[in-house]
Structures are given as structure tokens and as C-alpha cells.
Design goal:
about 725 residues, alpha/beta, Rossmann fold, seven-stranded mixed β-sheet, 25 strands, about 20% strand
């Protein structure tokens, strides 16, 4: 593949000049998007000189208001069109990549400059169009290629620019990384919607560094070394190898996703030496020619690299300790890269210099990404649209959270029984096949709404008969958890009652209970009793307990039939192999037990949970109405057993490390002391929660077995087939 070389303007030309912004005072900045990455922008902007955080914008005004409150920002809006009227001069764009082009164009046309998250666009044509628009409007446009500002990369570039290794001839980039969504079977993320998307989601990080070293790409050849079909027709290339010819040398890129071992490196080979940056460990080492004979030169090469690596390792450890103890500001490499990239942009903007990673640089990086994507740049065939939902049919069951790993099983089982189903979803793309196929055949209604969308929920529930609530809200603070998980669930009960729903089945968790051995004379039975000391539990457990109580009160007051189901440790295809119910996974192959790991766990297959939920939803005569049901199987398997079986199934060196609870608590107290000495807020570690995590008390699931006829898989071999051997790579 041949790529046309990008022409970059010289410093001080239109793309590198701040444009008509009048910066008499602080630059008034807005952050557009209030998701995960936005918090890094907001935190970094709060530290950036000459910047006034003026507004937060998100399609969800409530989420914008929460972010604005956390960072003391004056305005929260839901429409980017409002930003120019608020006097915003620059918007930081922190939204999904497929929205970058349209929102960047909208902001520039309204007179607002843009600092966008990578990638600037998903094609070179779109990137060029945005660069030309910014130039014509004389507005700043730059991209957050923050990996160029990683501390280890900045040191690498300084050494290369100093001439230490002579003329740069070749760059090797390796990106061998895990991918949480891939392991969990969560294929709704943007990066899975088309084969090329993973390049623009992940590859632009190393490519921005390669572009800085070699300039524009001239030609490229890509091979997809391994692929898989996530859903029918949804292909994902998990291993890539690309070789390049560039303006100032050659390059190679190897990418592998969903890998158990992380290797993230950039190696620069010059005419007189090489330098390698290990981004995973923030280490830098290299080799230069010497005047000595080969035997001594080889010794010096090893000794010098060892000295450099030891020095970096000590520096990293010292920096971590200093930050943890509060003797130094936050110093993790990713945050530093975000902070320094943002600071460099605003410094150049105010000084009138060339913007780092400006629109033309971003165009060049986009061309590198296009070169990698190769033939995968073709747009996938358009999907057949999801039909508009009609009216509810007799016996309609509404499923909230039907796209999750339990929810989609519930939907499938309801459809197998010819029950009419409505799924309430937040987005219409990348839905599980069971939902899209049933919707297109007319067997299932899909309504796009969220729990806080009163109109959407009213449409979904109107005329329906029963509702299954699997949607799990969470948050970073108790206020957020209480708003989403507790009050949100109570609101669902109110909406169900108003719509005349006969029964609401709420899916909670045994995390709402206290599962320590003290005070438990026998098995934990089916009852409404939750942990009497929820304030000593983490937010999720506390939220589930509070949600159960709020639902019971609301349902009782409104006369709504309510069933609460509490699954145990849910396992099976679609759940992460490194399940937190087994222990604390210090690494993806080292599991530290919540205790000695020698007692049976309350494991249960996701398929069996779905069977119980469907039975509870469709049960006649109200046999389980007003009840809280435990859903746990009795397999006899311990945490140590499961990890050992996983090792056999995967052929990997997986290890279970038993640790007495008193020792784990002592270590947690040690961490707490370090945090407090460092001036950081931290709650004293709860020994009650640690005992509860051990799950040492057995569970009774008598009600589900007797009243619903529930028969979960408990045969050891059959259970291992469904829960553990699914991770055997030979069965993929």
C-alpha cells in the first residue's frame, strides 16, 4: 500500500498558530464528554496554569453536573452548541472516536478551538478536512497524542535527538496487551464494531511515537496473523504485523490483543547504536559503539544496559513511594503524559507557538493508522436496522439489562418459550445476536432508553405484564451509588406499579449479605435479612443491600409483587477467567485467596441463574412473590480447586496462594497507614468485609429448588466443562 506524504506547515503557519483567540485572561476551557477519560482532562486542567475550567458538556446533563460538581466547574450543559455562548474558547473533546469528526467540525464552526482525544478522525480524508477547516478559521486544533509525552518516551526522544545513536534507521514497536472487554465477552465497545477500529483505538499510541521519529509514512504492508468471529459477521483481528517505509527510515509494528502477558516497547535502531523504551515498566536502556575489542565491548554493552535498567527501576520505586507517602505529587506515567500533553498545548496556545501534535501532525498519524488498516478500511456492510417497537403484546416481559452475560441468557430462554420480550438498551449498536435476530424477526421489541429516561421506560412498560431488572448501576461515591442503584431501582418499582406490571424480579447479589463465619450457626437461608452493618462493606455491597430495602418498601407501599434473586459466584462463558470471587488476582496468573481457599464456594453457572430468573418471572400463583431467593449451587469446588482446573484447561502456570485473613488484614492496615502518612484520605480497612469475601459460610437455596423446581448443575465434571474448560484455547 502506498501512502501520499503529508505536507506539514512550518512553525507559525495557520495550523500551528493560535488563531483569532484573544487570551487577555485565562483561557476559558470546556470538557465535552464526562466519561472515564474526561476525569484525567479535568484533573490535569485543574493543575494547568493560565486555564479556567469553565464548563462540562455531556449528552447526559446529570453526568455533566456530577463532573462539574466534583471539579468545581461553573457550568454543566448537554449540548455543545451552548459552549460558544458561554464564552468557551477551547473545548477538550473526550467522547467516543466515531463522534470526533462531527463534534470537532461543529465546535470549529461555532468559533471554539479543539483539543481532541486521539484519534482526530477515522480516515485521512476526514483528518485533512478538519485541518483545513481549522486553518481557514484560524482556530487551534490539536490532538492528545499523550504517549509522546510519556516520561520514558520523552527521555528516549531527548537521547535520539542528541545524536547518541547516530542516524535513525529503523523503529520497532510492540504492543502485546490484555484487553479486558475481549476477555469478558463485552463486544459493545466501539473498537469492536469494525475490524479497522482497533487500529484507531490502540495503534495510534505507538504510531504517534513512530511518526515523531520517522515523519510521514510512504508505504506499508500488513498481515492479520490471527482473527476471530465475536458475533456472526463481527470479525476481530487479534494479531497484526505491519512493515513500513517512511520519510526518514523504516519501521515495523506488532500488535496482539487479549494477551495474558504485557509487552509494550519502542526500539529505535540507529547507525551507531540503539535505544529501547519499555512503556510497561517505564524503563529505558540502549547500546552505543565503543573503541574496545569485541569481548570487552560485549561486556560493556551488558553492564551498561544493566546499570541503566537498575537505575530506572530504583527511580520508579522511589517515585512511587514518595507519591504514596505524599512527599511528591502524583507521578504515574499515564497521568504525567496526560498532564504534560495538556500543559504543552495550552502553553503553546498562550505563547503563540506551534501547537504540539497539531492538526497536520494528527493527519500524518492518521495516515499511519490508515496504512496499518489496509483493506480493512472498507466500511462494513450496513446492518439491517432494528425495527421500531410496536405496542406490548399479551404476556410481554420487559428485561432491563438484557445485553449482559446473564441478561442475554434470560432473553434467550424467554424466547425459547415463545414469551414476547422487550429489551431496554442504552445503545442500538453491537447488540448480542440473540437480541438483533429476534428483533428483526419481530419476536422482540427493542427500546432505547436508560433507567433515568422516564419517557423511554414508560413506553417499554406500557401494556407489559412482568419485568426483570438486571441493570446494575454503580458509582465512585456513595452519593452516586445511592442515586443510580438505590433510588434508580426504587423508581423502576414505581414505574412498574404505575404501568400495572404484575411482578418485578430484581437481580441482587449475595454481596448484599454478610457471609463471614462468625454469627452464622448454619447455612445462609432465603430471607430478607441483609448485612446489618452495610457501612463496613464496599459501595457495591452496600448499594445492593440498600436497593433491596428500598425496593421492598416501595413495592409494599404500592402493592407491587416483588421477587429478589441473589446469585452466588456466577461463572461460565462470558465471565472473566480471573474471577474476583476466587481471590485477589495480583497478576492474571497469580490468585491470592480470600483466606486459605480450602472451603467450597457458592458457585453457580450463568445458565442456571438465567433458568431460575425465568422461572421466577413466569411462575403462576405467586409462589415466590414477596420472597428473597438465594441462587447458589453445591459443587464442592474450592477456590484452590478452580484455579488448579483453570491451569490444566489453559496450559498456563496459574497459581493459587492461600493467605490467612489476619495476614491480609495486616497488609491492608499497612497500606492504610502509608496512605494516611501521605496525607491521602482512606477508610480504615474493614475486617468484616474481608471475612465476607472469603464466602466460608454455605448457602441454602431451598425456595428456588422447592417452589421453582430449580436444578442447577452440581456434578463436578459437568460444572467444570461449563465453567472452566470453556477457557481452553483449543475449544475456541
Amino acid at each position: 500500500m502506498t501512502v501520499t506524504e503529508t505536507e506539514k506547515p512550518a512553525a507559525g503557519s495557520a495550523a500551528g498558530t493560535p488563531g483569532p483567540l484573544r487570551l487577555d485572561g485565562p483561557t476559558r476551557v470546556a470538557v465535552v464528554g464526562a466519561g472515564y477519560i474526561a476525569d484525567f482532562h479535568l484533573e490535569a486542567l485543574a493543575e494547568t496554569r493560565g486555564v479556567e475550567l469553565h464548563a462540562v458538556c455531556d449528552i447526559s446533563r446529570a453526568r455533566a453536573e456530577q463532573a462539574a460538581q466534583r471539579f468545581s466547574v461553573g457550568h454543566a450543559v448537554a449540548d455543545p452548541a451552548e459552549l460558544a455562548g458561554l464564552g468557551v474558547q477551547v473545548a477538550h473533546l473526550a467522547v467516543p472516536p466515531d463522534l470526533h469528526v462531527s463534534l470537532t467540525r461543529q465546535l470549529l464552526e461555532s468559533g471554539v478551538g479543539v483539543f481532541a482525544e486521539k484519534p482526530i478522525a477515522l480516515s485521512s480524508d476526514d483528518a485533512r478536512s478538519l485541518a483545513e477547516l481549522a486553518e481557514s478559521r484560524r482556530l487551534p486544533l490539536a490532538v492528545n497524542h499523550n504517549y509522546v509525552f510519556r516520561p520514558v518516551i520523552r527521555r528516549l526522544l531527548e537521547r535520539v535527538d542528541s545524536g547518541e545513536i547516530g542516524r535513525v534507521e529503523h523503529v520497532e514497536a510492540v504492543l502485546n496487551v490484555p484487553l479486558r472487554q475481549l476477555d469478558a465477552g463485552d463486544y459493545s465497545h466501539w473498537m469492536f464494531r469494525a475490524p479497522r477500529n482497533i487500529v484507531f483505538e490502540q495503534a495510534v499510541h505507538p504510531l504517534s511515537i513512530v511518526e515523531r521519529l520517522l515523519g510521514a509514512v510512504v508505504s506499508a504492508r500488513t498481515s492479520q496473523l490471527a482473527s476471530r468471529e465475536l458475533h456472526p459477521g463481527q470479525v476481530f483481528h487479534e494479531r497484526w504485523a505491519t512493515s513500513f517505509v517512511a520519510q526518514r527510515g523504516t519501521a515495523a509494528l506488532y500488535m496482539a490483543f487479549g494477551q495474558p502477558f504485557t509487552r509494550n516497547t519502542i526500539q529505535v535502531i540507529g547507525s551507531d547504536g540503539f535505544i529501547e523504551a519499555d512503556l510497561g515498566h517505564d524503563l529505558l536502556s540502549g547500546e552505543r559503539k565503543t573503541m574496545w575489542l569485541d569481548f570487552w565491548n560485549s561486556y560493556l554493552a551488558g553492564a551498561r544496559r544493566g546499570r541503566e535498567l537498575r537505575g530506572d527501576a530504583r527511580r520508579n520505586l522511589t517515585g512511587w513511594l514518595a507519591s504514596t507517602l505524599g512527599l511528591r505529587a502524583r507521578s504515574d506515567p499515564f497521568y504525567l503524559s496526560m498532564r504534560d500533553s495538556i500543559a504543552a498545548f495550552h502553553r503553546a496556545l498562550r505563547d503563540g507557538g506551534q501547537l504540539p501534535n497539531d492538526a497536520r501532525t494528527a493527519l500524518s498519524v492518521t495516515q499511519w493508522a490508515d496504512a496499518v488498516a489496509g483493506d480493512t478500511t472498507a466500511s462494513p456492510a450496513p446492518e439491517k436496522p432494528i425495527p421500531e417497537p410496536g405496542d406490548a403484546r399479551p404476556g410481554e416481559v420487559v428485561v432491563l439489562g438484557g445485553t449482559g452475560f446473564i441478561g442475554r441468557r434470560v432473553v434467550a430462554r424467554l424466547l425459547e418459550r415463545d414469551v414476547p420480550v422487550t429489551c431496554v438498551v442504552r445503545r442500538l449498536h453491537s447488540l448480542p445476536p440473540v437480541i438483533t435476530e429476534a428483533a428483526r424477526s419481530g419476536r422482540l421489541r427493542v427500546i432505547r432508553a436508560s433507567l433515568g429516561d422516564a419517557a423511554g421506560m414508560e413506553q417499554a412498560l406500557r401494556g407489559a405484564q412482568r419485568c426483570v431488572h438486571l441493570a446494575t448501576g454503580n458509582g465512585a461515591t456513595w452519593e452516586e451509588v445511592e442515586a443510580v442503584m438505590v433510588r434508580g431501582s426504587a423508581q423502576v418499582a414505581e414505574q412498574c406499579a404505575a404501568a400495572g406490571i404484575e411482578r418485578l424480579v430484581y437481580v441482587s447479589s449475595i454481596a448484599a449479605l454478610y457471609t463471614g463465619t462468625d454469627g452464622q450457626p448454619g447455612a445462609i437461608g432465603d430471607s430478607w435479612d441483609t448485612d446489618p452493618e452495610p457501612e463496613q462493606r464496599p459501595l457495591y455491597s452496600r448499594g445492593k443491600a440498600a436497593a433491596e430495602k428500598a425496593l421492598r418498601e416501595t413495592a409494599g407501599r404500592l402493592g407491587l409483587a416483588l421477587v429478589v434473586a441473589r446469585p452466588g459466584v456466577v461463572v461460565g462463558e462470558g465471565t472473566p477467567m480471573q474471577h474476583s470471587g476466587l481471590g485477589l488476582w495480583a497478576r492474571d496468573n497469580h490468585c491470592v485467596g480470600w483466606g486459605r481457599g480450602d472451603h467450597p464456594l457458592p458457585l453457580v453457572l450463568a445458565d442456571d441463574v438465567a433458568d431460575a430468573l425465568v422461572a421466577a418471572t413466569l411462575a403462576d400463583g405467586g409462589g415466590v412473590d414477596g420472597e428473597a431467593l438465594n441462587l447458589c449451587a453445591s459443587t464442592g469446588l474450592t477456590a484452590a480447586d478452580v484455579v488448579a482446573e483453570l491451569a490444566r484447561a489453559t496450559g498456563r502456570p496459574l497459581h493459587f496462594h492461600p493467605r490467612p485473613l489476619w495476614l491480609s488484614q495486616s497488609m491492608e492496615i499497612g497500606k492504610w497507614i502509608v496512605k494516611r502518612v501521605g496525607g491521602r484520605k482512606a477508610e480504615f480497612p474493614s475486617y468484616r468485609d474481608l471475612k465476607s469475601r472469603a464466602l466460608a459460610t454455605p448457602f441454602s437455596s431451598k425456595l428456588a429448588r422447592e417452589r421453582l423446581g430449580w436444578q442447577p448443575v452440581e456434578d463436578r465434571s459437568a460444572f467444570l466443562d461449563a465453567a472452566v474448560r470453556v477457557y481452553d484455547p483449543g475449544r475456541r
